Amino acid sequence: MKRILLSSFLLLFLLHGTVFSQRDSLRNIFLDAESWFLFEEYADALPLFEGLLKNDPGNDNLKYKIGICLLNDPYQKHLSIQYLVEASNNINPDYKENSYKEITAPPDVLFYLGNAYLVNELMDRAIESYEEFLKIMDRDVYDEELVNAQIRACNNAKRLKTMPVDIDLLLLDSLINTRYADIHPVISGDGTKLAFVTELPFYDGAFFCEKTDAGWSYPQSITQSLGFDADIYPVGLSHDGTEMILYYDDEYIGNLYYSKYEEGRWLPATKLGDNISTKYWESYACFDTEGNTLYFTSNRKGTHGGLDIYKSDRLPDGSWGVAENLGTNINSRYNEETPVISEDGQTLYFSSYGHYNIGGYDIFYSKKNADGTWGEPINLGYPINTTDDDLYFQPVNNGTNAYYSLYSPSGKGNHDIYYMEIYSVDNPRMYFVTGKLNAEDSPSVNSQMAIFIVDSQTGDTVMISSPDSETGEFSFNLKKGIYELHFKGEGYVDLIKPLHIDRYSDKSGITLEDNIQLALVKNEPDIFEGEKSQIQLEDTLYAAKAGESITVPLRLRRGSILITKVYQDSVLMSIDTLEVERRRTDLEIIPLPGISKIELEMIDRDGNIHINAFEVVGEEPIQYIEEDEPLGGPDQEQFEPGHSILEEPVGDMLNELEGDASQLHSQMLENSDGSLKEYLAKLDLVGEGILTPEDLIMHLEEVAAENGFSAENLKESLVESLNQIKMQEADSDPDRIAALKSLLSMQAEGTLKELLEDLNPEQEEIKSQIELFEHLYEQAESNGYTIQEVDELLIQAVAEDNGEVLLESLKEHAEGHLKDYLDKLDLEAAGINSTGELMAHLEKVGIENGFTMDDVRGALLTSLEQIQLSEDDLFEQMY
Fold first, then answer.
1. Cα Rg for the chain, rounded, in angstroms?
2. Computed from CA positions of residues 317, 319, 325, 330, in that sequence, does the dihedral angle turn out positive or negative?
3. What is the rounded CA–CA span in Å between residue 236 and residue 337?
4. Strand, helix or coil at 15?
5. Which of 23, 163, 198, 461 has the greatest count of CB atoms below 10 A from its CB?
6. What is the pLDDT of residue 217?
7. Which is it for the CA torsion 603, 605, 606, 612, positive or negative?
8. 526: left (phi over 0), alpha (psi -120 to 50) or beta
9. How many whole angstroms from its chain centre is CA 279?
10. Taking 70 as the threshold, does the pLDDT of residue 443 lie above it?
11. Contact, 482 vs 496, CB < 8 A?
């Protein structure tokens, strides 16, 4: 019995010791993982935390740590979300950091979850996580501004994704790109030398190659030549590629080194002088073209944020002078990194965690001003910038191209180095357009036939192309824009085809429709009458005083001849001829007494005849009033004794009107007719002692009977005038115009963005939202942007990039042939899914359906006038 008890005691003792030994082992693993985690060596910490989680699968502290490790792994960021979501369900405000016994997650798990959503482009979920974190965060511990900056980055990302930068990527060959991660490319200014880093299994190796006639040479390992065993990183090459700046981590102090290329090899690197490499952290540098100025990053004392960009000039003895901070235009309250100056010295490219950011580090550029200062940094745009960290961008050719390392599933390894073509207004993408032309009487074409490519906005002929005389095939290159293709041939009717090239067009090439055929000139012209003609009328009946000129707006075909015939009682009274220079033409008519018929005959450039007509009623002045007839006419409403318009609801509108009586007087003069108009025209406000709007109405009520106008005349003119004054005041609100200008500045790109940023509406006498857009349209050609870019901004203001909303808005405000076509248009049946596709469709079908893009823009501007975006509406769209 004693032997059994003794055996049981020994077994329990051994088991107890084993449990304690296992706990100590797990604790030590946790402490090792925490050490790696503390020094941000996440790749080393991750497998340790994952092993611990297998032993304790419900531990949310471990899930929190694993989520952060994955968030810092460039190839596993998407896996971080699941761990951080689970950890966020067990938040403990009293979380104990670095404690092995802790099994809950700290409040900032919501911040990291927001980062995980953002880096995976789930911006709405990211915003929700950040906002939840703001509700519970301790503002003495966490930086509230940083969280708000992340929310702004989410909204910025949502916007920039809708207006992607047009780029092409060319993967460098397998001599440079390997199955490993090839990163940090550095190119010489002349484009002939390339240094980069490859992440090898046991260290990061530096490599160097040169461009020859046959391409890039085989990369040479230069790590040992530079005097290092591993982990030395090239960051800058001189313009000719014979000088190199390198970064090295000297026991957790970042320093910059220098090496020179002599006799086919790089000399051992030496640390740059005390003005550059300090006891603080220096991480990156670049030379200017002459090699006399060094731009570099440092977190030394005196920075505006974390890492700032400085510059230093080379002294006569070859050393570098005292560093100068580039200032707050460049340096934000966060980190700036990887500066590169363009070959012409006028543009600084760099990465920043601040400014107009869409997540992580973004690449920006800043233009040098005439006084030597740097302008506001501009985000390079999506997809060059992502919601992750974007660093080590190496522009060449003054920014039209770049070398850049990124990860793609179609690449050769992890990260690969690409050559990037960046398209812009200064470097437009050229689209290869092909087609085939034939003639009505022959399968071939003759040497007299040609295609004139005309810019629809300016009317300028961009180029002339000739089809192959045997096959009829033709081809040419065009940039984005709206064009008319004029197919011409002697003895053939000119044929015009629209061509709209935008960002949705096929980048591999545009093939025009198969059957482009020139028809023989017919001996007899075609005649189109009424609505079938291309003479578009706003109305068919006009009335005015006989002898007083009126303006009748017409829409005609440019280049046509218009013959105007005036008939009265079937007798031809006059005939006039004019050349049509604009599609929108105002016809001046002086009405004859009685009813006149105005017959319009237009002969277009093809010889076709278009006929339409309208009538004008010329009203003769009233000569006398019957003695027994009440003043104002038998059918007019007279004023009731003791009753005033001011007692009616319109009186409340009048009370809200500010200022003296002159504004109301002018507006009523414009909106009245007959006896009331005659009296208002001769009324002397000062002489009658009329000071306020109420004084004016009371006076008009007193004199109405003796001057031949009625209460109804007065009320109609007053109501219409008050409504127009109210709309004018709303439309001319400077704050509303300024808010719209700010919104458009954020949405625009390139030279249009620059014009908006510099625009002074007051100086340009822009008094309404419509006038702002009209100014942008007028300035397009002279400022190097297209009318289509203004179209996109107008569509965003009217329809917020929603195709269905845009269609309904156009339907409501369109007229004539455009309205007829829109009423029967089915977006789904036509395969139209966006506002851009709708505008392109209308451009394509406009001519054959009797309307132009000017008609479309007119409807959009009318819609904008009706919407009258408030200042709050505009700022809601901005933020």
1. 38
2. positive
3. 13
4. helix
5. 198
6. 94
7. negative
8. beta
9. 43
10. no
11. no
Break the chain into its structural domains and give their ranges: 167-422, 431-518, 527-619, 645-719, 734-878
pLDDT of residue 812: 85
pLDDT tens digits for 58-76?
A: 999 999 999 999 999 999 9
DSSP state at residue 279: S
What is d(CA 535, CA 530) in angstroms, rounded to the nearest whole number? 8
Give the largest CA-CA distance in the chain: 145
One fold for 167-422 and 527-619: no
Half-sphere exposure at residue 278, Cβ-oriented, CA atoms within 13 angstroms: 14
pLDDT at 23: 63
What is the DSSP secondary structure assignment for residue 849, as one 8-state letter? G
Percent of the chain with pLDDT over 70: 89
pLDDT tens digits, 446-491: 667 899 999 988 889 999 999 988 888 899 999 999 999 999 988 8
For 101, other C-beta atoms within 10 Å of its C-beta total 8
Q: What is the dihedral angle through the alpha carbons of 364, 393, 502, 827, rounded to the nearest 10 degrees?
A: -80
Per-residue pLDDT tens over the stretch 585-596: 889 998 888 889
Task: Indicate the residue type of 581.
Answer: E
Gap between the Cα atoms of 472 and 451, Å rounded:
11
Beta-strand relationship, 516-518 and 431-439: parallel
φ and ψ of 743, to 5 deg = -60, -45
- In CATH terms, the fold of domain 167-422 is Neuraminidase (2.120.10)
Q: Are strands 450-455 and 461-465 parallel, antiparallel or unpaired?
A: antiparallel
Give the mean pLDDT of 39-43: 92
Please tell us whether the domain made up of 431-518 is placed in CATH 1.10.3720.10.
Answer: no
Residues 361-410 have pLDDT tens digits of 999 999 999 999 999 999 999 999 999 999 999 999 999 999 999 998 88
Distance separating alpha carbons of residues 198 and 220, to the nearest angstrom = 12
Distant-in-sequence, close-in-space partners of 244: CB < 8 Å, separation ≥ 6? 186, 195, 234, 236, 237, 238, 258, 259, 260, 261, 266, 269
Angle, alpha carbons 260-263-268 (nearest 5°)? 40
The one-letter code for the residue type at 209 is C
Strand partners, 123: none
- CB 395, CB 364: distance < 8 Å: no
Close Cβ partners of 538 (under 8 Å, ≥ 6 residues apart): 552, 553, 815
**For residue 219, cis peptide bond before it (omega within 30 degrees of 0):** no
DSSP secondary structure of 388-451:
S-----EEEGGGTEEEEEEE-TTSSSSEEEEEEEE--SSSPPPEEEEEEEEETTBSS--TT-EE
Q: Kindly tell me if the per-residue pLDDT of 622 is higher than 70.
A: no
Cα dihedral sign, 88-94-100-101: negative
The Cα–Cα gap between 4 and 11 comes to: 11
Long-range contacts of 645-654 (CB under 8 A, 24+ apart): 645/697, 645/701, 645/711, 645/714, 645/715, 645/718, 646/694, 646/697, 646/698, 648/715, 650/715, 650/718, 650/719, 650/722, 653/719, 653/722, 653/726, 654/693, 654/694, 654/697, 654/718, 654/722
Tell the residue number behind the tokens 């919501």, with chain if given: 110
Tell me phi and psi for residue 724, to 5 degrees: -70, -40
Contact in structure between 405 and 392 (CB atoms under 8 Å) = yes
For the domain bounded by 527-619, which CATH number is listed? 2.60.40.730
Question: Residue 83 pLDDT more than 50?
Answer: yes
Backbone angles phi, psi at 299, to 5 degrees: -110, 30
In this model, does residue 273 exceed pLDDT 60?
yes
- Look at 548 and 238; give whichever has higher pLDDT: 238
Give the C-alpha separation, 526 to 535, whole Å: 14
What mean pLDDT comes out for the span 81-85?
Answer: 96
| CA atoms of 322 and 311, how far apart (whole Å) | 9
Residue 224 · residue 246 · CB < 8 Å: no
The confidence score (pLDDT) of residue 454 equals 93
